[in-house]
Design a protein that fits this description.
The chain has 3 domains: 44 residues; 101 residues, Receptor-associated Protein, CATH 1.20.81.30; 238 residues, Receptor-associated Protein. It has a 3-stranded antiparallel β-sheet with strand order 2-1-3, with helices on one face. Helix 3 packs across helix 4, helix 7 runs antiparallel to helix 8 and helix 11 packs antiparallel against helix 16. Helices cover 75% and strands 5% of the residues. The termini are far apart.
């Protein structure tokens, strides 16, 4: 339904304004009268830039989802109807994309769809985990509890994502800065020295000639180099999206990387155990839970192992049995899962494993940063220092000649 902007007057002569989603302007005017106000002006809200150009629309972040689930849980616990909760949260939502989604969900719920079905129509915002937990909450009559669990799950998930991103961003940032400084020296600074050396004449030392040749090449091909780098990243991203075989190989390579691969595995263990623990404690069948966890793993190798685990369980085996031969999930985790199965406290054990590996990821990221810091500084200082020394060698020769 369209959204209308309205202005109205109070009985005492004051002014009020707002916006309302309605079928017609007459319905808006009637609503204003029911509020005890005198309608003054009603008009359709103009389209936002993001509606005209969808690619400019802001994305729905994990933070948006966490705030939404927390607020929704409080409202449901207070006894407010779902439609009213969705209306209130949509009206106060600042993210235009999320506001539109919530209004669509509210409309579907009003039409008779379940809350989970309505959320499932927006997979880019609400993933399989979110939808299935909401469905379990609706069936079990514990929607407020499920929403609180979801908020915790999303917060932990975002924390893990930031930790992994932090581990990758630091070396990438330092490398880009170092390369930018080197390119700037080669393109802008070295030509000045080259002209000065040409005016003096004579033969240049080998290191100096090598740097000047590299500078000349860089000046001639810098545009092609930048275009090549951009094209390489674009092709890589497209290949990851369009070719499952290529994505499988790169996912396997990521897990085998020194240091980084270990962090990715720990993040995978923490995400798997926490998500599965949340789903089991919420009443989701374990086979459905494993299927959802596998699809949201983010790595095809891990997804493959989890699907094999799911298949083994469907054949009557325990969770721990197929995980014992895994190269991803460590023995300590498998042992704790086995104990959880034997004692009937699976969800508690999975949460403890997740908490443990959250701390492990913290330690691994801190250790990686401490290791990379001196290495990157030596690389940056060594590269720039080598170029500067090469440029100063002829100056020393010229000074000796003059004396």
């Amino acid at each position: 339904m369209p959204i209308y902007l309205w202005n109205a007057k109070t009985r005492s002569g004051g002014k009020k304004k707002g916006e309302l989603e309605a079928a017609t302007s007459e319905a808006v005017a009637l609503h204003i009268k029911n509020m005890g106000l005198i309608p003054d002006k009603v008009k359709k809200k103009p389209k936002d830039v993001s509606e005209v150009f969808p690619f400019l629309a802001p994305k729905v972040t994990i933070k948006d989802l966490v705030v939404f689930t927390r607020q929704f849980a409080v409202m449901v616990d207070a006894g407010l109807p779902l439609v009213q909760c969705l209306q209130i949260l949509a009206d106060q939502q600042e993210n235009i994309t999320f506001k539109s989604v919530l209004r669509a969900v509210r409309g579907d719920v009003e039409s008779g769809h379940t809350f989970a079905e309505s959320l499932g129509k927006h997979p880019k915002v609400f993933d399989d985990l979110f939808v299935n937990l909401i469905a379990a909450g609706e069936v079990g009559g514990i929607l407020d509890t499920i929403l609180n669990r979801l908020a915790v799950q999303l917060e932990k998930q975002e924390k893990l994502r930031k930790q992994l991103k932090g581990a990758m961003v630091y070396p990438a940032t330092v490398s880009v800065i170092a390369l930018a400084c080197i390119v700037l020296l080669l393109v802008k600074v070295i030509p000045v020295f080259e002209q000065m050396f040409a005016d003096f004449g004579g033969t240049l030392p080998g290191p100096t000639q090598m740097v000047i040749s590299l500078s000349n090449w860089m000046q001639a091909y810098i545009v092609y180099v930048l275009a090549g780098v951009f094209a390489a990243f674009s092709l890589f991203a497209q290949a990851r999206t369009r070719s499952p075989a290529f994505r499988y190989r790169t996912d396997a390579l990521a897990l085998s990387l020194p240091v980084f691969g270990n962090i990715i595995k720990k993040v995978a263990v923490a995400r798997f155990t926490r998500t599965l623990g949340t789903m089991i404690s919420s009443g989701v069948p374990i086979l459905d839970g494993l299927d959802i966890v596998a699809k949201t793993a983010g790595n095809m190798i891990i997804e493959e192992e989890l699907q094999l685990t799911r298949q083994s369980i469907s054949e009557g085996k325990t969770i721990a049995e197929p995980l014992r031969g895994s190269k991803i999930f460590p023995g300590m985790m498998v042992q704790m899962v086995s104990v959880g199965e034997e004692t009937g406290s699976m969800e508690v054990m999975l949460t403890k494993i997740a908490d443990f590996y959250d701390d492990e990821v913290d330690s691994a990221v801190a250790g990686l940063t401490a290791l990379l810091e001196p290495i990157m500084m030596v690389f940056m200082g060594g590269s720039i220092g080598t170029i500067l020394i090469a440029m100063y060698l002829p100056i020393f020769t010229i000074a000796d000649t003059i004396t």
